[in-house]
Amino acid sequence: MCGIVGIVGPQDAPLIQRMLGSMVHRGPDDAGVFRERETSLAMQRLAIIDHAGGHQPMQSRDGRYTIVYNGEIFNANDLRASLEKEGVRFRTDHSDTEVLLELLIREGRRALPKLNGMFAFALFDRQEQVLLCARDRFGIKPLYYSTLAGRFAFASELKSLLELPWIERKPDLQSVFHYFSLHYVPGAASAIDGVRRLEPGALLELNVATRGVVTEQWWQPTFGAGKVDKRELTERLSNVLAAAVDRWAIADVPIGCLLSGGLDSSTVVSLLAKRGHQLKTFTVGFTGPGEQAWDEMKLARLIATQYRTEHEEIVLEPESLLDDLADMVWSLDEPYGGGLPSWSVFKAMSGHVKVAMTGTGGDELFGNYNKYAGLEGRIAGFLPALARHSVDRERFDREFFRRYYYASDAQKRAALTAKFDASSDTESTLWMRFGAGGPDRALRDRVAATDLATQLPDEFLLMTDRFSMAYSIEARTPFLDNELAAEVFSIAAAQRLNPRLYKHLLRDVAAKLLPQDLMNAPKRGFVIPLKLWLRGRLQPLVRRLLDPRRLAEQGLVQPDFLERFAIPHFAQAADNTQRLWNMLMFQLWWDVFISRRSLDELRAEVRAAS
């Protein structure tokens, strides 16, 4: 696992080092820089596989090709064996970087569908003067880029691009507008004007001479319509899931697991333990007054006891959240208003393991949180044959967008200033994503495709990548294994998803692995009790960040936001938890990335305000 950066165009020599220095946390084990005229590529390495042979940037024998690469290719051994049969002689013992390099040399972009894993890379062809960049199917690993000032620059993290003097610290208003509904920034545009994100399953080709950039999708999810006997299906999924978990556990260093007490992470732990892995497991819980409803430590303890893991419980308190809040915001790169408990888990893992297995992706693969149910209509839960297959815009807004997200476009416009008048509605943006698959696709598949293109990469995977890398830990997501995903998506939507029993296919697989108490437990999610905290220890911080004078000077949010939304929440006259947390996190992001407040100063202010 690494952090990668690059510049193509006129540049001062120290710039690439400054970019690299901003993300040493992504790879403290090694570093390297390649320069060729006006092209520079560099990396920070976290050594997971082939410590001795994986140094980057890595060049071909003839010096024509140079690669920097962030990720892991979990079928690298199979690909290596195939290449060796074709006469390739490898210089490293088992480096997946060299496998990727040799495969790309021979097949170019045609190699991408063969890769099973998580990756973002840049390959420079010195002879053709072309830079090829690509990102994995699901967007597990990030890649930002900019074409400003006649230069091309890329990086694993947004903060590295902000080291470049020609990139202005100016918010992208459209992205900010979307954020206030979704609590994350969606799509190709980042939160900074002029900086873009290569989308999941996409590639980018740069003509070094002309600076011309072309992007295209090399992968999109496909859904089948096959129906399989239930017993045969359970056996097939059991085998494919076990193989995926086993594949994603390959490492030359110890591995740990995030264990939430939920179905996804518990299944991963059980499969690893049954394969003989000696595991360290970590979970987070809450013990304060009124917080028990959010606590899953008891369920996680059941799994840890059953499979004899070395288990650690992290009790999360407001003080620990506040201590690290400024660092979380800096690590995230972009405004994020979701839950933060996994930060504390990765922090606890730091120093113990370099690889952390997670259950991320299990929801999107097996359930989509049953988001499709409202679109189909209530009767579909009892008579699936009567489920709706066509959905109009009004129903989509009511039963999908406004049910699962946090503010309608009308609500936002009432709270924001005229600067956002030209912004495209967020509801329209998601509606276009929903319709991208065409009317012939099953409604449940269209919902799945929408989540795979938006919330999974832009919220859950972004947060997981940044929080794990902040502590130099490689987070892995075996539910997003290519072979497993293809197997699940080949099943007809009506059989794959059941509105009356959430994740029924995964439950069938897990039934022989997990205790009944966990199987019957309601889904809670890995969240923190923000409502209570915003009325207590976080209240002074909210008052400071939403001070009317500050908002007026900023010019984005109506100055009466505190009076309209925070004061009633403090008095328990209204529950504005999501709106306040969303705004609080945005204001902290503004301090770090727009105002450029020092982290030391912001840490002190956050703690003083609490």
List the main descriptive attributes of the protein structure presented here.
15% strand, six-stranded antiparallel sheet, Glutamine Phosphoribosylpyrophosphate, subunit 1, domain 1, Rossmann fold, 4 domains, 42% helix, 17 strands, 610 residues, alpha+beta, 27 helices
Describe the structure.
The chain is α+β, with helices and mostly antiparallel strands and 610 residues long. It contains 27 helices and 17 strands. It folds into four domains: 216 residues, Glutamine Phosphoribosylpyrophosphate, subunit 1, domain 1; 203 residues, HUPs (Rossmann fold), CATH 3.40.50; 86 residues, no CATH class; 80 residues, no CATH class. The chain starts with a strand and ends with a helix. The strands form three sheets. The chain has a six-stranded antiparallel sheet with strand order 2-3-1-9-8-10. Strands 4-5-6-7-11-12 form a six-stranded antiparallel sheet, with helices on one face. The chain has a five-stranded parallel sheet with strand order 15-14-13-16-17, sandwiched between helices. Helix 2 packs across helix 3, helix 6 crosses helix 20 and helix 10 runs parallel beside helix 17. Helices cover 42% and strands 15% of the residues.
